[in-house]
Specification:
heterotrimer; A alpha+beta (555); B mainly alpha (321); C mainly alpha (306); A: 555 residues; alpha+beta; D-Maltodextrin-Binding Protein, domain 2; Dipeptide-binding Protein, domain 3; 7-stranded mixed beta sheet; 5-stranded mixed beta sheet; 18 helices; B: 321 residues; MetI-like fold; 13 helices; flat
Chain lengths: 555, 321, 306
């Protein structure tokens, strides 16, 4: 390596050149390092103590109250480690296992749920977990408009304590998706006294206590968040690999917006782990740097929606023609997208849900790459290639506006892929969330990408095709009458009495979406975590979270 | 200048400063409100009320709360009146008071900025001293070229390179974190380089001018050494003109803080405004601009006030080059 | 932001201040400081001017006729050839999508230099109008205009630019406008100072007295004499404006994808600094060299003028 010392008199230019030389040398070294990357095998006996220095993406929601924290992997993971839910969900199979509830029963009509609450569990402020505490939580959640929709609590009749440790929840209509919601971090059960704090004030995390393996020592989304081990933690989830308090003393979370800084800090040993954002997967370049530093990538498919394109089919928009939507679907090379924008071996999307989602039906019609078919369809639709290489019809250029909130590598690849079939893709970026919502509402775009990860249940589309939409992409991706049809399929599904009948309805929904090209899948979503060779025993939970109860550091 | 004249001068200067500050506030207000913006939705989303963005009642409530339903002129006077009382409004993005938002982050920016200015001043003096002390053509040429080279390198680029070399390659200094002196080193150097370049240009020139003054030529003739002449006369007289450029240094420091805090992700006022712009958080943008303008105005005011006291030749208009 | 313009406006500020007894020698000292800025390089003046001139010509040609400099498509992705180091085929290497970085840098010159020229045009024209009006009309108009200019000067340049960008939106053109407006005060001050000087010349006074229309005086006498110093300042400012465009685009307010702009090229490449340093470093050097070349040329030009 070019490691010679530079005299100060070398001057700026000299230093800069030297810097380049050194960086190049590092690059060469990094390239060699790839082959020898060792995996962090969970060998050896877990060791007690230590601080895990974790890098997360900025918490833009600036809120750590379980139900109000934004649905990104970072805040959800903090929540998961200090607050627990009634159930836990196996991220691989979607199977529910007991957590704060030791057992539960569902009535035949799916209107009544009975939960038996574990005994001997306390919140970190000393209060006891009992039926009354759970009832208070459920009642409070059902009153938070946005949350109650996400957690399928809108049709709640009543939550009541049958006895000290039994909770009965009744709904006015059959409500199948409810059970999967009980595993969500948004369904985190907090101390009764915490619920007395006004909702907005709970965002700071102050006075908010849970039953989790860690306590929230400090929450500051601008600088650092600190979780401390709870010595008297009583284990609750059978998915945990060991039964007892956490091994780690402390988890220290820094928020770093820049990828280069995240990777550099990890490589130079200033951090033990990088927890990727739900929307930002590790790229080929990131993987190379992490491996060169001796780290390992852990990755898990995110149950829920894939990265999907939602076309705007309103009258007058180019995508109102189903042939153009079909052509768009054929024009995207998803395999190249996955290996270029992300990395080699990255899963290729096959339907509107990610691979591990309950009830996924693959959709080859909307996920096949075929430039010839795309061109033929566009010709058929009357869009003729002009001298500029783009297609035109009635003097109008075939321009599609992709409206997004941040700049991503994928946009530039897609622009070029669509250019090959004569579609002029314009990416319009606006970071202002208010502006964005207004534009989405007004349908001032041709397509948007709306990833939303609520829970491992096909009913996430209830939020997209909603009668009270919080996301407007669904409203514009179907004509009004088709939108009604989609809603009625979802309603039938969620009020269905058996699990099988429900999934059948959701298969029908996916077929319906496919036939209408109402959703065009773009890429699979995975949750990534990079850990150094010191870190062992990390466990992915449902909803992109990482549970650190079993995590330990080797010396 | 007689004492009475000086008093009038002070009063005039203070009045002008206040006027400039008011005008800066107004200009910013006008610029920010030039085009209509949908801020209500941003406010609702920031409050976690995503589901309410389509609700006219919720929007009306927000409009009333932030005074957005007032006419622009009326709203201007409302916020101006509040600003005069130290209330800079409520952030759209964070929902908290702008003044306290700035106050909590100001410490981080000021500590780094002050260190950067001190470093810049020290480096500039050393460079200027060396440039006037050495008479070898090559050394002088290199020393005088340094500032030009430095101002040609974008500040963000300097920051990236420093981080790459000292943090990622040599592993000497941390690239993340905000506490401890080690985390301050790279941002301080990043910010100091452009400021010192600007300052050393001024000083080199000031020194050269003094060296050509008759009394220096006389001192040389009396056999005083070059070093003692520089130390005893040139530095003092040659740096006076640079004093009037302190306002420029304030501007350079503010610019540097925005860039350095973005590069090193430090949660100071610079990053606050960068994020405020991304999120169209107008009250925060307005507040930070007011703060920067105040710093500029106050520094210039102080310079204007003390300059006549420092320079005995102030009342004589010297014409020499 | 732009140190040149701020220095220059500071000169004018002190000129004005001389009315308040701040010595006018400061003005001369700063002018010569500017003049001196490139003097170190001027040790080999001929060589530096030639090199700077050649480089500037190359950049200008690249900006206006990018297709003549490179035949490669700056937007064509080629994932098979991503992250390739500089070679005979790809002089500046390829990026994360396999695009040719040489052509992206050339087209980036087009975007960045055009934006910088637009900024300069706004600053120069606005500055000329305000400066001449202020000096020529004098009185209350002069006071009002110059006080307004003072106000704009009290807001640090970068801050003023991003405030304007907040209001008018992100993108290359808004950024250019914002920087142009933020640089305008310096030009207004210089123009005013020059106009005042010329206005007092006997022949202009004679023209005024003999009833020649003010517009004619402005065009036939004043503009001609003001343009020289203003264009030198514009040249000096050119490098600073390029840096400002790059900085704003670095801060995330600039071009939208897939457009190549120098600042965004550097910014996009920073994630790959360790594995593929050329992606960010080469465009970075092009920016540094361009700014340097412009500064050296301007300084030598300024010296030549005296």
């Amino acid at each position: 390596m070019n490691n010679r010392k530079h005299r100060p008199s070398a001057g700026r230019i000299g230093k800069t050149f030297a810097a380049i030389a050194s960086v190049a040398a590092i690059a060469a070294l990094a390239a060699c390092g790839n082959a020898g990357a060792s995996s962090a095998a969970d060998a050896g006996t877990p060791q007690q103590g230590g601080t895990l220095r974790l890098i997360q993406f900025p918490d833009t929601g600036q809120c750590i109250d379980p139900s109000q924290a934004i649905s990104d992997s970072g805040p959800r993971t903090v929540v998961r480690n200090y607050v627990e839910s009634l159930t836990d969900q196996d991220p691989d199979t979607g199977k529910l296992v007991p957590r704060l509830a030791s057992d539960w029963q569902v009535s035949k009509d799916a209107k009544t749920y009975t939960f038996h609450i574990r005994q001997g569990i306390t919140f970190s402020d000393g209060e006891k977990l009992d039926a009354a505490a759970v009832v208070k939580n459920i009642t409070s959640l059902s009153k938070q408009a946005a949350i109650s929709k996400v957690l399928s609590l809108t049709t709640l009749n009543k939550a009541e304590a049958v006895d000290a440790n039994t909770v009965k929840v009744t709904f006015s209509v059959p409500n199948r998706p409810f059970l999967n919601s009980t595993a969500s971090t948004k369904f985190g059960i907090i101390a009764p006294k915490s619920l007395d704090i006004p909702t907005a004030q709970r965002c700071s995390g102050q006075g908010v206590y849970g039953t989790g393996p860690f306590t929230l020592e400090k929450y500051d989304p601008n600088t650092k968040t600190i979780l401390k081990r709870r010595a008297d933690y009583k284990p609750t989830s059978e998915l945990a690999k060991h039964q007892g308090p956490a091994y780690l003393d402390t988890i220290e979370i820094s928020y770093v917006p820049e990828e280069s800084v995240r990777l550099g800090s990890f490589s130079s040993g200033q951090a033990d782990a990088i927890h990727a954002a739900t929307t930002e997967q590790f790229t080929r370049n990131a993987v190379a740097q992490i491996k060169a530093a001796g780290g390992t990538i852990q990755s898990h498919s995110i149950p829920g929606q894939a990265f999907n394109i939602y076309p705007n089919v309103a009258d007058g928009k180019p995508l109102s023609d189903i042939k153009v939507r079909q052509a768009l679907a054929y024009a995207i090379d998803r395999a190249t997208y996955a290996s270029t924008v992300y990395r080699e071996g990255y899963p290729v999307v096959g339907g509107i849900y990610d691979a591990t989602s309950v009830g996924l039906v693959k959709s080859p019609a909307t996920t096949t790459y075929d430039v010839n078919k795309a061109n033929a369809l566009l010709d058929e639709a009357g869009w003729k290639t002009g001298a500029d290489g783009y297609r035109h019809k009635d003097g109008k250029k075939l321009t599609l506006v992709w409206f997004d909130s941040t700049k991503r590598t994928g946009q530039e690849l897609l622009i070029d892929e669509l250019r090959k079939v004569g579609i002029d893709l314009q990416v319009d970026i606006s970071a202002s969330r208010g502006e964005n919502l207004n534009r989405e509402k007004a349908g001032d775009y041709d397509f948007v990408i709306e990833p939303y990860n609520a829970k491992n249940d096909p009913n996430v589309f209830d939020l997209i095709y909603s009668d009270q939409p919080a996301f407007y992409s669904g409203v514009h991706s179907l004509t009004p009458d088709k939108f009604k049809q989609a809603r009625s399929i979802i309603k039938q599904a969620d009020e269905g009495t058996t699990k099988e009948a429900r999934l059948e309805q959701y298969a029908k929904l996916q077929k319906f979406i496919e036939e209408n090209y109402a959703v065009i899948p773009l890429s699979e979503r995975v949750q990534d975590l990079a850990v150094s060779s010191k870190v062992h025993g990390t466990r992915f939970g449902v909803e992109t979270t990482v549970d650190f109860t079993d995590t330990w550091l080797s010396k | 200048m007689n004492p009475k004249g000086y008093a009038v001068y002070i009063a005039k200067r203070i009045g002008q400063a206040a006027l400039v500050l008011w005008a800066a506030y107004t200009v910013t207000y006008v610029i920010l409100n030039l085009l209509p913006k949908n801020v209500e939705q941003s406010i609702l989303v920031a409050r976690g009320m995503q589901e309410a963005v389509g609700d006219p009642n919720a929007i009306a409530q927000v409009r009333a709360e932030f005074g957005l339903d007032e006419s622009p002129v009326r709203h201007y006077f409302t916020v101006l009146f509040a600003a005069l009382h130290g209330d800079l409004g409520t952030s759209y993005q964070y929902g908290s008071n702008v003044a306290s938002l700035i106050a909590t982050r100001l410490g981080m920016t000021i500590s780094v900025s002050l260190l950067a200015v001190l470093l810049a001043v020290a480096v500039a003096f050393v460079l200027a001293f060396a440039a006037s002390y050495f008479r070898q053509k090559t050394i002088r040429a290199v020393l005088q070229a340094l500032p030009t080279l430095s101002v040609s390198v974008p500040t963000f680029w300097i920051g990236l390179l420093l981080m790459q070399v000292f943090s990622f390659w040599l592993g000497l200094l941390p690239s993340i974190g905000q506490s401890g002196w080690k985390t301050m080193v790279l941002p301080v150097i990043t910010m100091a380089i452009p400021v010192s370049a600007m300052l050393s240009r001024l000083l080199m020139d000031g020194f050269d001018n003094v060296l050509r003054e008759p009394f220096i030529v006389a001192a040389k003739a009396h056999g005083f050494s070059r070093r003692s002449i520089i130390v005893s006369h040139v530095i003092k007289n040659g740096s006076l003109p640079a004093l009037t450029m302190l306002g420029l240094i304030v501007g350079g420091t503010v610019n540097g803080a925005i860039v350095a805090e973005t590069v090193f992700s430090r949660q100071g006022v610079g990053l606050l405004i960068q994020q405020a712009v991304q999120n169209q958080d107008f009250p925060v943008v307005q507040g930070v601009v007011l703060l920067a303008a105040a710093a500029f105005v106050v520094v210039n005011l102080v310079v204007d006030l003390i300059y006549p006291l420092l320079d005995p030749r102030i009342s004589q208009t010297s014409k020499e080059v | 932001m732009s140190s040149a313009i701020q220095l220059e406006s500071a000169i004018d500020k002190t000129t004005k201040a001389s009315e308040d007894n701040i010595p006018s020698r400061i003005r001369t000292s700063v002018v010569s400081a500017l003049r001196r800025a490139g003097s170190g390089l001027r040790a080999h003046s001929g060589v530096s001017t030639t090199l700077a001139g050649l480089f500037t010509i190359v950049i200008l040609v690249a900006s206006f006729f990018p297709w003549a400099v490179t035949h490669k498509d700056p937007y064509a992705t080629d994932p098979v050839h991503m992250f390739q180091a500089p070679s005979a085929e790809h002089w500046f290497g390829t990026d994360q999508l396999g695009r040719d970085l040489f052509s992206r840098t050339i087209y980036g010159a087009h975007a960045t230099v055009t934006a910088a020229l637009l900024s300069l045009a706004i600053a120069v024209i606005g500055g000329l109008v305000i400066g001449i009006a202020s000096a020529y009309v004098g009185g209350i108009v002069d006071t009002l205009l110059m006080r307004s200019v003072d106000v704009l000067l009290s807001i640090p340049g970068l801050l003023l630019s991003i405030t304007i960008v907040t209001a008018i939106g992100f993108g290359t053109t808004p950024v250019a406008i914002a920087i142009g407006v933020a640089s305008l005060p310096g030009f207004a001050r210089t123009t005013r100072a020059q106009t005042l000087k010329i206005k007092n010349h006997a022949y202009v006074e004679a023209a005024i007295v003999s009833g020649v229309s003010p517009l004619r005086i402005v065009f036939s006498h004043i503009l001609r004499n003001v343009l020289g110093p203003v264009s030198v300042l514009a040249m000096l400012e050119f490098g600073a404006v390029i840096m400002s465009v790059a900085t704003l685009s670095f801060l995330g307010f600039g071009a939208k994808p897939p457009a190549a702009e120098w600042g965004s090229l550097i910014n996009d490449g920073r994630n790959y600094l360790i594995t593929s340093p050329w992606i960010s470093l080469i465009p970075g050097f092009v920016v540094v060299l361009t700014v340097l070349a412009a500064t050296v040329l301007a300084n030598n030009l300024k010296r030549g003028e005296r």
